[in-house]
């Protein structure tokens, strides 16, 4: 199905239709507005970035674990150095599919097996719905918003849960927290929790990560944010929604305005002072 006209939670919106929607704001769009500029946000809307091979493996692992996702194309080659392999990769991109070597697909399958060996991760993924698409309108601005959680476990009793599966350089929570900050995952958590409440009335949902190391032994961890960090993300989201509404109303999508004052942090100043006294 194409993008739904009515607000709600839908199971059959394709990944292509979801990401091609220019009339609503997603969590990733909100993060672009707050961490980059409205001008960069609009540039991405008008000309989406080209597919990146480094993301293809993550898409494959995602599909193996969740059972849903973009289409994969297996390329029977040892590597991407031959012209034939390169041509197959480009053809797959033209069709909106993710090309992977046979060895990469087999590795993604091994990773999925490791996820389901992890007691908590397996329990979270035991039954539920993958990649549902939700739409609602912001009360304050009238802007339409959307979200697409990786997995919503069936929860006939108890607290509703939103599950996000992430591949990472390390599944160590002490290392993953830096990636979570860098990529604004706390904003995603707040966005998805609020979105689920808007479209289903589910209150106080928990947001859980399943984090998996991309290299052997493909370790898995489960983690969640402190409530106060989710609240910071919610404040950032509010700023992004208001900014989006303002830019749409005025038709102005600014970049970097005015004159910035460049201030050296303390460690830079100490380094210069040390050099002067050496």
How would you sum up this structure, described in words?
With 278 residues, the protein is an alpha/beta fold. The chain has a single domain (8-249), classed as Lambda Exonuclease, Chain A (Alpha-Beta Complex). 48% of the residues lie in helices and 17% in strands. It has helices at residues 15-20, 27-35, 38-46, 53-66, 83-94, 102-117, 119-124, 173-182, 185-200, 227-250, 266-277; strands spanning 8-10, 72-75, 98-101, 128-130, 133-137, 144-147, 151-153, 161-168, 206-213, 220-223. The strands form four sheets. The chain has a three-stranded antiparallel sheet with strand order 1-5-6, covered by helices on one side. The protein has a three-stranded mixed sheet with strand order 8-9-10. Strands 2-3 form a two-stranded parallel sheet. Helix 5 (83-94) links the parallel strand 2 (72-75) and strand 3. Helix 2 packs across helix 9, helix 4 packs across helix 6 (102-117) and helix 9 (185-200) packs across helix 10. It is globular, with a radius of gyration of 21 Å. The model has no long low-confidence stretch (mean pLDDT 91).
């Amino acid at each position: 199905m194409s993008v739904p006209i009515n607000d709600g939670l839908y199971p059959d919106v394709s990944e292509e239709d979801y990401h091609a929607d220019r009339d609503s704001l997603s969590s990733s769009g909100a993060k672009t507005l707050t961490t980059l500029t409205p001008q960069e946000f609009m540039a991405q809307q008008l000309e989406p970035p080209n597919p990146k091979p480094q993301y293809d493996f993550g898409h494959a692992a995602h599909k193996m674990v969740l059972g849903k996702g973009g289409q994969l194309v297996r390329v029977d080659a040892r590597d991407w150095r031959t012209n034939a392999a390169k041509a197959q990769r480009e053809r797959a991109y033209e069709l909106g599919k993710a090309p992977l070597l046979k060895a990469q697909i087999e590795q993604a399958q091994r990773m999925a097996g490791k996820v389901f060996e992890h007691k908590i991760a397996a329990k979270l993924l035991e039954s539920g719905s993958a990649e549902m698409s939700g739409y609602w309108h912001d009360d304050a601005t009238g802007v339409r918003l959307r979200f697409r959680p990786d997995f919503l476990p069936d929860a006939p009793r108890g607290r509703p849960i939103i599950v996000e599966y992430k591949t990472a350089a390390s599944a160590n929570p002490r290392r993953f927290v830096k990636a979570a900050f860098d990529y604004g995952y706390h904003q995603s958590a707040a966005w998805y929790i609020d979105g689920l409440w808007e479209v289903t009335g589910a209150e106080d949902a928990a947001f859980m990560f399943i984090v998996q190391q991309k290299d052997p032994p493909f370790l898995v961890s489960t983690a969640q944010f402190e409530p106060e960090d989710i609240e910071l993300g919610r404040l950032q989201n509010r700023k992004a929604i208001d900014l989006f509404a303002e830019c749409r109303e005025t038709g102005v999508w600014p970049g970097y305005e005015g004159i910035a004052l460049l201030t050296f942090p303390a460690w830079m100043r100490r380094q210069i002072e040390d050099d002067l006294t050496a």
